[in-house]
Amino acid sequence: MGSNRFGQLGWGKPGLDYNSPQKIEKLKGVKVSQIACGDCFTLIVTHDKELYCWGKCPVPLMDKEETNICDMRSQIA
């Protein structure tokens, strides 16, 4: 719940705010071992050592620009 300005919640419509928590259906079945959140992004590391980002990426990631907006499908490592 909170601001979803850049899609950082992983669900709902980017640009809108949400007042209640929701499950992220795209993560169904994914075993998450770590999560990090900032004002405009979310990062997770899975048990399989995969890294995913959504929202406004905080740093350049591989061939992505610093201001790139990632979506839930953006596996970055």
In short:
This protein is mostly beta strands and 77 residues long.
Tell me what you see in this structure.
With 77 residues, this protein is mainly β. It contains no helices and six strands. The protein has a four-stranded antiparallel beta sheet, with no helix packed on it. It has a two-stranded antiparallel sheet with strand order 1-2. Strand 3 and strand 4 form a beta hairpin.
Order of helices and strands: EEEEEE
Span of the ends, CA to CA: 26 Å
Structural class category? mainly beta
Runs in which pLDDT lies below 50 for 5 or more consecutive residues are none
**Average pLDDT metric:** 77
**Widest sheet: strand ordering:** 3-4-5-6
Shape annotation: globular
Using only CA atoms, what is the Rg?
12 Å
Strand content: 25-35%
Helix content: under 10%
Give a quick account of the main beta sheet: strands, pairing sense, barrel closure: 4 strands, antiparallel
Strands, count: 6
Task: Tell me the number of helical segments per DSSP (H or I, 4 or more residues long).
Answer: 0
Organism: Trichonephila clavata
RCC repeats: 1-48
Keywords: Repeat
Protein name: Regulator of chromosome condensation
